Amino acid sequence: MSHEHTEANIEHHHPKGHEHAGIGHAVPMWFLAFICAILLILTGITVFSSFVDFNEWHMPEMNLTLALIIATVKACIVCLYFMHLRWDRPFVSFIFITSVILLALFIGFAITDTKEYQPLVDQNDSPLIQDRLTELGLEK
Amino acid sequence: MTQVPMEHDHHEAGLHGHDVHDAHHDHPKELGHHWDNLNQQFEAGKLGMWLFLATEILLFGGLFCGYAIWRGNHPDIFAYGSQFLSVKWGAINTCVLLLSSMTMAMGVTMAQRGNKPGLIICLVLTLLGAFGFLGIKYVEYSHKFHEGLLPGIAFYEKPSDSHIWVEIEEQAGDQQETSIATDVAESKEEAELQMARADLPVMPAAEATTNEPAAIGPSGLNQSRVVQEEETYRVFYKEGRIAAQEDQAAMAEYAEHPEEAMRELEKHPLQDPDRPPNAQKFFTIYFLMTGLHGIHVVVGVIVILWLIYLTFRGRFSPHYYTPVDCGGLYWHVVDLIWIFLFPLFYLI
Questions:
Q1: Is the pLDDT confidence value at B51 over 70?
Q2: Which residues of A touch B102 (CB under 8 A)?
Q3: What's the pTM value of the predicted model, to 2 decimals?
Q4: More confident residue, B279 or A137
Q5: CATH T-level assignment (fold) for domain B40-162+273-345
Q6: How far is A78 from A39, CA to CA, in rounded Å?
Q7: Kind and range of the H or E element at B73?
Q8: What is the pLDDT of residues B96-128, one digit of tens each?
Q9: Do A3 and B105 touch (CB under 8 A)?
Q10: Chains A & B: contacts with CB separation below 8 Å
Q11: Rounded CA gap, A93 and A57, in Å?
Q12: Domain segments of chain A: what residues?
């Protein structure tokens, strides 16, 4: 195919600025493998941290917090390097970050609201479930 | 500007107009007639894809919000339900998705370099990753279905093919047997106690029923109590040794196959008195979120197959690979969602 060139060929035949030149930022293969290795290591750290009992140090919510922090770091790495946000126009990042901020607002307000109603939450099996358990002869 | 109707003709002409396009160097065949240049076309296409991905984040966001509310209200349900998910398979699936994300990003690099065989290899590897993920998910889902760990009221049905469910008839039979056994043992004890009492020449009724240390009683009572205590100790010792042996066997099995041994030690949630109320909620949100994610993986498989087809047709070049890039972005978002799903469900 006449349209398949190697990178070197493009540089040679079509100097930068010409509309036939290759477009976008090409990330080297070794760098992608390096990023993936970091992500796999972070996955290992998440799994390991989930087995640590933070209650011993009086940090009961630490497992969840740590897992979410590591997940966010992983997500940022994927966005920046696999999804090319690091080299894209800032407007693309703006769109994505806006959606994440809106989501944070949504979840944040929902949690605050839920906390207000926490004492009213019925902590028993719902009547439908109780009936079903009675049918199965498994009521507590 | 007089060329405009001519360009239109090219587009009408369709596929057989290749030679005309190749000869016509200021207007590449990949460029839509409404764009100034290939870069503008690429950036616009990518912008549209990112807008779609933002809506994807909001789509999953609704479920993440539901998760946050339910977990905030019932942390015990999530801690309990999470025991029935396999951390091993979850972690393997995370790695599979991360690796397939890497091969997809490598595919984009290959497309940018115009390396057609490299692009095909990368896309096929990504496809294998997607199938691997779906295969593991199938194993996990079928385990849940067999065990009856299902969303909503379906959770409160007898499981179809469970490894940990104990049949009610058996259970009732066991209970009956044990109760008979205890009755016999009790009556035997009672008889022994009466015999011991009969040995005593004189004993006030109040002292016979007392639970005070035997040392304060008359010597006869003292002796018979010692015998009885020895017997009790022997029984306890024997039972204790059996229990210890069972424990050792269980520990050895656990050391060899932690997964299987754990499953055997588990109780079916319906038969578990420690099951928190409304335990089905964990599986409801688990199936909703991983299910929606799974549908996205299936769509990803279709997208990757389509990309492989287009690559074979020779549609991509260093100056036109927008479908590869956008398909890649979609696949990375699928990976992104899983990065959060894995700790939120498997690692509680």
A1: yes
A2: 32-33, 35-36, 82
A3: 0.72
A4: B279
A5: Four Helix Bundle (Hemerythrin (Met), subunit A) (1.20.120)
A6: 8
A7: helix B38-73
A8: 999 999 999 999 999 999 999 999 999 999 999
A9: no
A10: 205
A11: 39
A12: 90-140
Q: Is B321 exposed, middle or buried (0-12, 13-18, 19+ CB in 10 A)?
A: buried
- b/e string for A110-127 if b means 16 or more Cβ within 10 A? beeebeeeeeeeeeebee
**pLDDT interval class at B16 (50, 70, 90):** very low
Can you give B87-107 as a three-state secondary structure string? HHHHHHHHHHHHHHHHHHHHH
Question: Can you tell me whether residue B20 is helix, strand or coil?
Answer: helix
Arithmetic mean of pLDDT, B203-220? 46
Non-local CB neighbours of B135 within 8 Å, separated by 6+ positions: none
Residues in chain A: 140
Q: What is the ipTM of this complex?
A: 0.83
Partner-chain contact A10 B314, CB within 8 Å: no
pLDDT at A129: 86
Q: How many residues does chain B have?
A: 348
Contact A79 B336 (CB under 8 A): yes
- C-beta of residue B296 within 8 angstroms of C-beta of residue B96: no
Task: For residues B121-148, give the mean pLDDT.
Answer: 94
- Are B153 and A128 an interchain contact pair (Cβ–Cβ within 8 Å)? yes
